Amino acid sequence: MGRFCLNCGHRIGEPVPAAAEVTAPPTADPSGRPAAAPTTPEPQGPEPQGLPVQAADPTPVPPVTPVDPVREAPAAPTRPVPPPRPQSQWDPREDLLPYEEVDDLERDSPLPGRAWIAWVLGAVLLVGLVVVLLRAFGTDGEETATDPAVSETSAPAPAPDQGSESPVADSDEETGSEPAEGPTGVGKRFEMAPGGTFDVPDTAPPTTDFDGNLVAYEASQMNDGNLSTAWRTAGDATGQTVTLTLAEPGVVQRVGLVNGYSKLVAGVDWYPNNRRIVGVTWVFEDGSSLEQTFAERPGLQMIKVPPVLTSTIGIQLTAVTPPGSGNLGRDYTAISEVSVIGRRAG
Where is the composition biased (Low complexity) (predicted)? Predict the structure, then answer.
């Protein structure tokens, strides 16, 4: 395929052929004589040929050599093929700028203004929060205080055998605080409930557990040191009084009890399935008394008592929860353990 002129249709790059001369046929003379043959003009030499017209062709065209129209026109010259261009190779040393010119970062500047104060305050607040959490989780979960002035709590301690004396740490002596006014007693403090006797209004009859064993609910089980046993009475015991008579008179300084049936066996928790005691009034031999309220959770909950010399202690039940709910719910009021801490009278 080639390129052609848009005006004349001539192939671009080929010589333009000479126009053929047209001779008129001889005509007869009116006198009857044949007309003279036309004469052919002398050739004037080759006519100058202009460069071929190109349209919309940016490629340069080599010059055309004029030829004699009589002679045969030479073949069109062929366009020289340019040599292949060398493939450019990427040179990072020439095509890339130096690193320091492209990415010249500034040095980190110190915190502007007073931004460091916020970091210091945040650190101080974090330390304070840690201290508060340590104090909160470091306390005994079994402790309960009802009266900030005279109340005190203690974790359940293993009860001694019947009739024995078990020394109890004297926090007043250890901390060096001044003892409260009143009788002080002699010797170390100990658990005074074991060896005492209970007078109760009524006792529920024994029952049979899931294994077929007979379970009793005697009053003596309130000071046997076993939190899985209990004294139990039928129904709501609000207003009734349980009286403890100590083995000997003593100076009482702390009292408390486990306010329900805290037995857990065969995956069954009997504490919520029975009534729980939520309030009592402790009454002593000299007529003094002290109220105590309880949280609804198993475990020994104690309260500090102004030192009082007594041989009997009355426990008036002032508030009791409704019976347990569900298939295992029972309508009984129970006390698993009673604790009295003090010293000998002297």
Answer: 14-26, 47-58
Write the pLDDT tens digit of every residue in 182-221: 788 899 999 999 999 999 999 999 999 888 889 999 999 9
DSSP assignment of 243-290, as one string? EEEEEEEEEEEEEEEE-S---EETTEE-TTTSB-EEEEEEEETTS-EE
Lowest mean pLDDT among 10-24, 29-43, 320-334: 29-43
Give CA 332 to chain center in angstroms: 44
pLDDT of res. 203: 96
Count of structural domains, the chain: 1
- Is residue 240, in this structure, part of any structural domain at all? yes
Q: How far apart are the first and last CA of the chain?
A: 137
For residue 314, the enclosing domain spans: 167-344
Residue 274 has pLDDT above 50, yes or no: yes
Nearest to 60 by CA among 12, 16, 17: 12
Residue 282 pairs in a beta bridge with 290, 315
Looking at residue 298, the DSSP 8-state letter turns out to be S
Q: How do residues 77-119 score in pLDDT, each as one tens digit?
A: 556 665 665 555 666 666 555 554 444 445 555 555 567 788 8
Residue 214 located in a structural domain: yes
Asked, for residue 316, whether it belongs to a domain, the answer is: yes
Which of 293, 196, 200 lies closest to 242, judged by CA? 200
Quick one: which of 243, 244, 211, 214 has its CA closest to 229?
214
Q: What is the SS3 assignment for 173?
A: helix
- Kindly give the pairing relationship between strand 301-320 and strand 337-344: unpaired
For 135, residues 6+ apart whose C-beta sits below 8 A from its C-beta are none
Q: Give the pLDDT band (50/70/90) at residue 305.
A: very high
We report the CATH number of the domain holding residue 295 as 2.60.120.260
Predicted local distance difference test score (pLDDT) of residue 179: 52
Residue closest to 192 by CA, chosen among 162, 226, 228:
162
Q: Please check the confidence at residue 327 and state whether its pLDDT lies above 60.
A: yes
Residue 282 falls within a domain, yes or no?
yes
- The reported pLDDT for the residue numbered 162 is 38
